[in-house]
């Protein structure tokens, strides 16, 4: 007899689809830069400010989203955040002046993107998986890479064939009429809502999305914990060097080095494709090996890839960089999520992840803005890449200094007692 598919895998597929759609739309911002410059007579710096504002709103929303997830459950947050992004993108076609873009895309859509992100998705996957959690995180996180691979070139093609207004209408309808109903109908906050047990059984270690009594949980103790800061700081560096530095500046860096549009496009596509592979591999490995050692390795390899990029004066080196960087791009997220849910299982998962992804988005905002400023002053990205190599080495060291989760029960109590004293 065939074994019945556990509903937890439906949960993973729906969260994957949600992240693919919402985050893919967010990552498509670059496709609209030139059309908006022409439509509204804006310079590149002003358009970039919309992206910077979006990163900030997205990041600041994460701790708030975490508490809302604790209160209303991840299903409500994910579904209605998807709807909010869809409506915001759809009504962008009515925009007639730049300030409306700042409000509609930079603020309103970014709040929706913040809701349909890792925080709520991680909570719901954690509730459904007590085993194979790393694999589930990897599949979920692969939605980012799949969205980058499908919706970014898809948006470019629609803009090329029609115009940017038709493109935002299509993206908005996709989110409103297809993704939102699927999320609302099929997501469930926990296995109990389907009279099921999580994969791995209820007797395993689990982290609930809503603590029994929020008033009794010593949240301040988190900020006195070495484990919290040794996760936060590397994840900040992760945001600086990936969605900040690479997603914003890789294409102009490539053009500065004389690479053709074809070579640059191939590099971006390779990076996105190997990003998916790296995410899935890291999720599987996180179930079988030490997450802290995985993170130490990933940040070290990312630093090495930037060394290759600095010396990439031939197309083969740029493509080699794209493959190597892609493998370790978002691959850091699943093991970081694993450690967060293991270290802080007695706290609110939404609260912890909210702060974690806030740090990532602050890093992303700085990684998008500072290299542009330094390039304007020096005419080169070298300073940004040298700094990134150094801080990535630091991130690698911080992760290896973390304790193994199975040895932390006593240290958690120690952290709490130190905070109380």
From TrEMBL:
It is a multi-pass membrane protein. It comes from Bacillus sonorensis L12. Residues 10-406 form the Major facilitator superfamily (MFS) profile domain. The keyword Manganese does not apply. It comes from the Bacteria. Keywords: Membrane, Transmembrane, Transmembrane helix, Transport. GO terms for molecular function: transmembrane transporter activity. This is Major facilitator superfamily protein YbfB. Pfam families: MFS_1 (PF07690).
